[in-house]
Amino acid sequence: MHFTSETRIDDILVEREFTFDGISGVLWTPASASHPSPLILMGQPGGFSMRRMLPRLRARARSSAEQGLAAVAIEQPGAGDRPPVPGAAQARADLRRAIEAGEQPAEEVIDRVILPLVERAVPEWQRALDELLTLPEIGDRAAFSGGVISIGIRLAAIDPRIVAAGLFAGSYVPRTILDEARRVTIPVHVLLQWDDEGNDRQRALELFDALGSTEKALHANMGGHTGVPPHAGEDAGRFFVRHLWDSRR
Amino acid sequence: MHFTSETRIDDILVEREFTFDGISGVLWTPASASHPSPLILMGQPGGFSMRRMLPRLRARARSSAEQGLAAVAIEQPGAGDRPPVPGAAQARADLRRAIEAGEQPAEEVIDRVILPLVERAVPEWQRALDELLTLPEIGDRAAFSGGVISIGIRLAAIDPRIVAAGLFAGSYVPRTILDEARRVTIPVHVLLQWDDEGNDRQRALELFDALGSTEKALHANMGGHTGVPPHAGEDAGRFFVRHLWDSRR
After folding, report:
1. CB atoms within 10 A of CB B141
2. Count of beta carbons in the 10 Å neighbourhood of residue A102
3. Chain A residue numbers touching B235 (CB-CB < 8 A)
4. Is the pLDDT assigned to residue A33 strictly greater than 90?
5. What angle do helix axes A107-132 and A149-158 make, rounded to 10 degrees?
């Protein structure tokens, strides 16, 4: 992992760009911290470049830094200047066509959209964790937040360094990932937009039910995919503080 | 309305007992307040006496008082030393029998348990509001919190003094009340225990969907009827502060 820039954004936030394995990323740490900071892996919507998401990522990172938490984003497979994921554009067009026609998308379409992304993104997040958790300013526990929910589920199911997950039920989840959800046992906080145009409510409720965690919360709010109210973000922030900090200090 | 006692519990809370129309109640107000306090109507589980619930009601009232809010509880129809609601004991036994047999309770049983209680409790809450909102230390807006959800729904649907409702989806809701839910337009915050043994999850989700409010949130947590986690109560507290205070000050 190679840091390429460091910027003190303000009294709260330090922003550092890095690359590893040819992937670029940004690490945000609290400008002043007395302990190593637990780390939030900030997911992004599939296919969106990190540059496009940067203002929102930075705002989320600032909220985390105010709680003494570090946050990281990496360029997703197929996004920004990374090579496209084979078949991804076609798969997304097929999914969009089904949704716009008011149809339930076929399972094979959902699989084609999501699974190649999960298969690439999860090991990349794990490699990033290998590097980031060795930094002296970063603690030894991490949480996944937002982005493509299927990526969060697989990471939560397989990587013990992930101790909590804030999941956004804003995309279709393949049946195979639904099965993996049963093996998730860490605390999860699931956000659902009740009328999300990019997901099916009944499937989202089924997924929440499937999660194996004994501590799980579903927060459903009115509105579409992009209409998450500010107080829902604040609730999620408190969830991370409870599980990344409170059990330690 | 006749106040019969006044006790300063501590630096935060003043507790006053009162009677009106032969019904006893308790009003809690902040021990120091610079503005008239908005009022939270604290519902209780059907059939439970106020005396039995007092420690929990007082704890909820203290949390409210810390936010400058007043809170009130009144003895429910058929509870404590009030005459029983005709047919209520038989109806509850019939409901319990169906639930214990793992059956979906018949609509007529749900109606018999809930509707007589709603028909008596709602006008009593309205009479209490008539009196309480004229007190100089109480503001002109109120919210309903907890207790029997069907009572909260009807109050929210018909009384404009109720500006927000925190509802606990912990009891069966008659079909007629489900229809009334469509006419609720105030902000609502619905708490659902995912495996509540006293309710049916699918009916609770249907109810949430039916509520006519443009601002509504569903917070579902794991566990049974009595397993609401502390952070869920804190989220509900912030909901009341947002809607009873923040739009004013």
Report:
1. 19
2. 6
3. 235
4. no
5. 50
B109 contacts B98 by C-beta, under 8 angstroms: yes
Q: Which helix (H) or strand (E) holds A163?
A: strand A162-168
Q: Which residue has the tokens 């360094």?
A: A161
Q: Which two tokens stand for residue B45?
A: 């589980």
Residue of A nearest to B234 (CA): A235
Task: Say how far apart CA A205 and CA A92 lie, in whole Å.
Answer: 23
**What's the rounded mean pLDDT across residues A79-104?**
94
Only one residue has tokens 């460091």, namely A6
Residue B225 burial (CB < 10 Å; 0-12/13-18/19+)? middle
* CB-CB neighbors (< 8 A) of B219 in chain A: 217-220
Structure tokens at B72: 């009130």
Per-residue pLDDT at A121? 97
A180-203: pLDDT as tens digits:
999 999 999 999 999 998 889 999
Q: From B223, which residue of chain A is nearest by alpha-carbon distance?
A: A214
Dist. CA B182–CA B77, nearest whole Å: 26
Could you tell me the pTM of the whole model? Answer: 0.92
Please work out, in degrees rounded to the nearest 5, the angle formed at the alpha carbon of residue A75 by the alpha carbons of A73 and A78.
Answer: 150
Strand partners, A17: A5, A26
Task: Band the pLDDT of A247: cuts 50, 70, 90.
Answer: low
Phi, psi for B141 (deg, rounded to 5)? -130, 150
Compute the nearest-CA separation of B248 from chain A (Å): 18
Structure tokens at A37: 């900071």
pLDDT tens profile B23-35: 999 999 999 988 9
Low-confidence ranges of chain B (pLDDT < 50): 249
Domains of chain B: 2-81+120-246 (3.40.50.1820)
State whether B208 and A220 contact (CB < 8 Å).
Answer: yes
Residues B208-220: pLDDT tens digits? 999 999 999 999 9
User: Measured between alpha carbons, how far is B15 from A116 in angstroms, rounded to an integer?
Assistant: 62
Could you report the predicted ipTM of this complex, rounded to two decimals? 0.88
Query: CB neighbours (10 Å) of residue A237?
Result: 20
Both structure tokens of A164 = 């909590």
CA B19, chain centre distance (Å): 19
- Among B136, B239, B226, residue whose Cα is nearest residue B186: B239
Residues A35 and A58: beta-carbon distance below 8 Å: no
Distance in Å, alpha carbon of B214 to nearest chain A alpha carbon:
7
Q: Quick one: closest CA in B to A195, which residue?
A: B209
Separation CA A33–CA A29 (nearest Å) = 9
Q: How far apart are CA B106 and CA B94, in angstroms?
A: 9
- Tell if the CB–CB gap between B216 and A214 is shorter than 8 Å: no
* CB neighbour list of residue A108: distance below 8 Å, 6 or more residues apart: none
